[in-house]
């Protein structure tokens, strides 16, 4: 029976996804009298053009010079690009690949492709040739927009990607490389031919906007398909989780080819942040130069790039007077890195967790009032965790039988996540074992959650070391070792042991001019990890194998040490 006061209101039937609280099909729901305003990317662009047209976007170009323009100019050129895409015959639902660094032309693709209801497929240039042709074919890329320096990568796999109709090189006509790529066009020439008027249309916010493939540490990479709604909500959520304000000037070091640049290209349009894009130069000196010259207050990157910055700062004696916050994500941050930010450079470190399947961050390091009241070291302890679940990214930890474990900071199990920005399936329905009943996605991470709601990853399921039936966390062990003053980097893998099944081997990269003193490293570990976790051996390596996203590739490291056995075993 509908109450009289509702008779003039539109009524609708709730059709919640099956995994939410059960509803009776007969239940009627009153619809709110709010506008149906879609959460779509072109709306972000028109908003930015209207409300912060003069805000700068600064890019370091491949040519080495600094390019500056504004959100108004981004919007104008994105409209030209939308016209160019139409001219190329790129239609709604078509997928277009990008192989590009963080720069203004990539930004234009980030807006024009979803804005025309086609999809960007951001391709990681560090993929192997096999993986490169695999993802291009799997996503059915119609065109590929490619940075001039990556043209040879495509030439190398040209025979294996017959479905691609043409290639657009992100440069001026004068910089067009000589290439064997058929139908190769110059981006600037293509744009110059186009009118800068284009009417963005509205459409359903659940429309697909982009694709990014998982790192593919096992098997083939899998395609994650983002919706407009997920990207817009997630951009909004990142501002909350990472405490980015309208006054910040933002430098995403995390590449736009990896997990939507943690949505920073959309955050900046939403808040009106000056956006600084570093191009290909991610070494310490280049990053420092941008941080300093552009007075960047917020930046985000993986631990490897922060370590390169620290090495540069240590050598040069420079400091970070402008930077206020540094988000560290993508891999575990050692405590020494957080402390260096806080104590040496007066920067607030923000250790966040996320994955390709969560659109960007799923947890972030908010300091609750309760933690703050316990003092500075408690704040640092909380930052050492991967932070608290963001609203919309529900987290839980379960045992092997799927039963939820208590949030006690001790009970470790598989980390599951669900929410508005979490994948519900992979492209073409591949590999469904991660998608569990109730909308839960199995992250493959092993974690605990404490009573204050802070998530702490203890390992990737496949990187854990099982010694005598007990688990050793390779992450905790390598993070503890990484703080040793002679070491530039550290990674731990399990090596076969006849008695214990597996024991840890610590592989270290030495800082320039330092020699490995094994006893000193072991001594350093005392009190930081349990004695039985101590590595059975420590070896020096010239470098650690880095994956396409700047994380140590444990598989490749294990491969390097395939024939290794512990001394005396
Ligand atoms: P990707 O999909 O390539 O971004 O990789 C996601 C994986 O990176 C996660 O499942 C974690 O294993 C790892 N990861 C991301 N952020 C963190 C973090 N803050 N600490 C530890 N591991 C992380």
Structural notes for this entry:
With 569 residues, the chain is α/β, with parallel strands linked by helices. The protein is 28% helix and 24% strand. The protein is globular. Residues 9-22 have low confidence and may be disordered. Adenosine monophosphate is lined by residues 214-215, 259, 329-332, 351-356, 386, 443-445, 457, 460, 549.
Strand order of the largest sheet: 4-3-13-12-14-15-16
In angstroms, what separates the terminal alpha carbons? Answer: 79 Å
How many strands appear in the DSSP assignment?
Answer: 28
Structural class: alpha/beta
What average pLDDT do the residues reach?
91
List the topology elements.
Elements: E1 11-13, E2 28-30, H1 41-51, E3 56-60, E4 66-70, H2 71-88, E5 95-99, H3 104-115, E6 119-122, H4 129-139, E7 141-146, H5 151-157, E8 166-169, E9 184-186, H6 187-192, E10 208-213, E11 223-227, H7 228-241, E12 249-252, H8 264-271, E13 274-277, H9 284-293, E14 298-301, H10 303-316, E15 325-328, H11 335-344, E16 348-351, E17 353-354, E18 361-364, H12 369-373, H13 376-384, E19 387-389, E20 393-398, E21 413-419, E22 441-449, E23 454-460, E24 465-467, E25 470-472, H14 474-482, E26 487-497, E27 501-510, H15 518-525, E28 537-540, H16 554-560
Parallel strand pairs: 3-13, 5-6, 5-7, 6-10, 7-8, 8-9, 12-13, 12-14, 14-15, 15-16, 27-28
Antiparallel strand pairs: 1-2, 3-4, 10-11, 17-18, 18-19, 19-23, 20-21, 21-22, 22-23, 24-25, 26-27
Helix pairs in contact: 1-2, 1-8, 2-3, 4-5, 7-8, 9-10
Bound molecules: adenosine monophosphate (AMP).
